[in-house]
Each structure stands twice: as C-alpha cells, then as structure tokens.
C-alpha cells in the first residue's frame, strides 16, 4: 500500500496569491434589506471572492459580507441623514484617494436614470469603470411596469426617461441582467457592443429563520414578498376565492416581513380575515422549507420597477423547484414558460385563477410546465457561465 505524507502549507493571503483587487460601489439605500439590489451585490461577491480581493464602498454596512467596507453611515442611522448628492461627493473624494489600488471598479446603479453618476466616476476611474444597472427604466407602456400613473408620476416618468435616462455619455462598459434591459439601452443610443447581459443570481440563504407549521395534506400556494400595490397581492386573494370553489384542499400562504401598520397591509389583512384557508405570516421564515412544501408560487406583480431584474423571490422559488406563476411581461418570458404567465387585461382575476386551477388539476400540464421552468433555470442561471462572463468583463 502506497504511503502518503501530509504537508501543512503556510496560509497565503489573497495578495500573496496574486489576486487582483476590485471595488464594488453601491448606491442602495436599505442597510438591512436582503432583497433586490442588495442580493445582487451579495451574490456577486460570493461568486467572485475566491478569484478577486473585493472591497466595497457603500452608505451602509452590508451585514452578510465579510470584506473591507468603506461605510458612510453607522448601522443605526437613517438613509435620510445622508442625501444622494452628499454621498456622491464624499464617495468621489474617497475614490480619488483609493482608486489606484484596484484593477476594476464596479458601480451598482438602481437604473439608467442615474447613469450620469457613472460618468462622474469615469473622470477618476477612466477605463477601470464598469456600470451595473440593476433595474429597468420606467415606462408608460405596458402598464405592468408602473402604478396607475398620477400627474406627479408622469412628471417623474418624463424626468427619468426623456432627460436623466438619456444624459449619459454612453461610453462606459455596462452590465444588465436581461435582454429586455439591453434593448431599452440600445433604443436610447447605447452601443450594443458595450452592454453585457449577465443574469443576477438567486440568493444563497442561510436557513436560520422560523419554520412554518403548515397543515398536512394541503395543496399549498405561496406568495413571498412585500404587500404594496405593485406586488398585486390583492389580485391573488381575489383569484384564490375562485380557486377555492373549484379545487378542494388548498391553502394560500402569504409571507412578508412588511410592517403591519401601513394602509395597504391593513387592507390585505381585512381581505383575508374571514377565510380560514388563507394564512398570513408577518415574520422571517425558512423560505427553503416553505417552497419545498409548496405546489405553486404566485407572483402577480403589477410592476417590476424598483427591483433587481430578475426578482429575487421568483428566482428563489425556481431554485427550489416549485412552479412559478406570474403576470406576463417581456422580462419574465426570458426565464419562465409563457404558459405560466397570465395576461394583463380586464379579465386578470379570471386569467390568474384559471391558470392556477389548470395547473392544480391537470398533472401532465403541471409536470410539463415545471420541466420547462427547470430547464430555463439551469440554462440561464448556470453559475459557472455567469462567473466566466463576469471575469471576462473584469479583465
């Protein structure tokens, strides 16, 4: 038998191993949120931390990340204490001092209306700069991308798209998550060759939250997320009432860590009050186990504005192999089978309830749609491919 000898190699830091340093610059205003753009930063950090030495410049400490962070506010402070112009000026002063240490500087911006910030950073960073647009530009059509448009919102729409969205020099390197976002940029004269489409990854949760005790032998339909108007939870509840009449033994679980004191939440609670087959949970739950027990996950979003594209709740449901049903949109057709997207028209309640009923009662349809979804997920969100693309951009 061959003898083996173990050798204890000395620890070598990333610097000693010759790793390039890169800097993430975030403009996210939620110090504690683990959704949306914060998820994008965390997952990109986790994906690249063995390849690069990564520092982060951010208004708030991003708790799950163990890295050197240049922080402008203490955790207990409120975003309102640090306005965007002040943060921009302070970050520019810091960037001027430290930018020479980094091979690349990746700036995360919520959407293209803030592209002028990238142009300001470019003055200091030059060719080191890469811009990551987390969300889409606001649009007037289709209506799913915004709330019912008031005069105030129409003015914001005009400011964002017609003015701020077009102000950029468009001479940087850009990353977006979907082809839809890329086409938006091309339509306002960005060069196609400067835009990389790299999907945002589903979150890698640590499952320390509460495990829900759900009734056994129930067909569980799940919603996870905020309860504001754009999320369409009221539509889901109205649709579920129709589902109940056609399919017995179902349970609708609505999970959110939203405050119970706001007006929209109170309306949702009132709608659910006398329905014993709707469970509302205002707590952080073990999402992994919740989805594992679920037959279908419903995300009837009226809007995808203000979120990372693609929405992290949808990606987490897909990752856990639960069938996702959502509202039709050009973005979601890139990752979900069109057969699981309900049409956005005057019959939306009927459209959604019919789609739920069909997939609960027709096993072959359910299996076919779930297999298509699995195939899409495995192709689009292949971590090795995404890492390879990111490394190519950051060369």
How does this structure look, described?
This protein is an alpha/beta fold and 395 residues long. The protein folds into 2 domains: 191 residues, Glycogen Phosphorylase B (Rossmann fold); 162 residues, Glycogen Phosphorylase B (Rossmann fold, 3-Layer(aba) Sandwich). It has 12 helices and 13 strands. A 7-stranded parallel beta sheet has the order 3-2-1-4-5-6-7, sandwiched between helices. Strand 4, helix 3 and strand 5 form a beta-alpha-beta unit. Helix 2 runs parallel beside helix 3 and helix 6 crosses helix 10. It is elongated. The chain starts with 20 loop residues before the first strand and ends with a helix. The N terminus is likely disordered.
* Biggest sheet: strand arrangement: 3-2-1-4-5-6-7
> Mind telling me the CATH class of the largest domain?
Alpha Beta
At CATH's second level, what is the architecture of the largest domain? 3-Layer(aba) Sandwich
| The CATH fourth-level homologous superfamily of the largest domain | Glycogen Phosphorylase B
Question: Roughly what is the average pLDDT, rounded to an integer?
Answer: 81
How far the N terminus sits from the C terminus, by CA atoms, comes to 46 Å
Tally the beta strands: 13
| Number of spatially distinct domains | 2
Estimate what percentage of residues fall within beta strands: 15-25%
Largest sheet: 7 strands, parallel
Unreliably modeled segments: 1-12, 31-35, 140-149
What is the overall silhouette? elongated
- Our Rg estimate from Cα atoms comes to 23 Å
SSE succession: EHEEHEHEHEHEEHEHEHEHEEHHH
CATH topology of the largest domain: Rossmann fold
The SS-based structural class is alpha/beta
